[in-house]
Design goal:
Layout: H1 10-21, E1 39-41, E2 46-51, H2 73-96, E3 100-105, H3 106-111, H4 113-125
Parallel strand pairs: 2-3
Antiparallel strand pairs: 1-2
């Protein structure tokens, strides 16, 4: 567990490059915001989280990455549940502070970068709140 990184993972780097290529500039991992969002757009009051499907337990039926652990369930199930609860609390706090929040899941990046790019474009322009 100590070797698992919390930032600069491949999905996050893909989103960073995509957003940068779209012309948006951002800050990363602002520690003064709940949850240390992966990408922060301070002037727009928008944040993007890039979640790994396993670690954040993506609940979409179409997600092929997420799974429940098969062993050591006494350890893993409470740990993963705490992560989901913490994610929800952090997103709620950010929204209460006036920030818009977008979550991009790891499996989305495997399906279609153009769809993800469109989702980011709409989010940044304030469409489909």
């Amino acid at each position: 567990m100590s070797h698992i990184r919390a930032k600069d993972m491949v999905p996050e780097m893909v989103v960073r490059k995509l957003v940068h290529a779209m012309g948006y500039r951002y800050r990363i991992h602002r520690k003064d915001l709940p949850g240390n969002p992966d990408l922060v757009f301070p002037s727009r009051k928008k944040v993007i989280f890039v979640h790994g499907c396993f670690w954040h337990q993506h609940e979409s039926r179409s997600c092929k990455i997420t799974r429940k652990p098969k062993s050591n369930l006494e350890y893993w199930l409470p740990k993963l549940e705490r992560t989901k609860r913490r994610d929800n609390e952090n997103q709620k706090k950010l929204k209460e502070m006036g920030w818009d929040v977008l979550v991009i899941w790891e499996c989305q990046l495997n399906k279609s970068l153009s769809e993800t790019q469109e989702q980011i474009r709409k989010f940044m322009k304030g469409v489909d709140k």
